[in-house]
Model the fold of this input.
Amino acid sequence: MDVNHDIALVAARAGKVLQALGLLITTAESCTGGGIAQALTEIPGSSQWFDCGFVTYSNASKTSLLNVPETLIALHGAVSEEVAAAMATGALARAHAQVAVSVSGIAGPGGAVPGKPVGTVCFAYAARQLVHTETHHFSGDRHAIRTQAVIHALSTVLAFLEPA
Done:
């Protein structure tokens, strides 16, 4: 299995769908460190449908760049669906995009907390007034967890955009 090929395929498909719909996407990433934005911008012509990406690794940057309330982070933790949702809506508010994907998680090897083991990744997808959140638990080392998170985010963006 060539994960780079898989990432490229799903990113290209997402780009085609975004372009066909006339939409721009923005990303708000923590544990993936810009991996989703990188995958999308690898596609030739991505400037037609990719607006910008935010890599907000620290809690302070989530607050200052995406307007995620400090109280929300304190209450739920940075790795939570609530914070992922705030990251996605914050990215939409700051970008010129109509669609946002955000991700916050624990890629390891450290960082686990009670109830949130290494591999816990929270996602949010936002468009219009709709926000969808989910949490997944991935396995493997840091690289494997981050790669799985990028593929999952891109695949879910497709599902979020494409009609059933």
Summary: The CA atoms of residues 72 and 83 lie 7 Å apart. The chain has six helices and five strands.
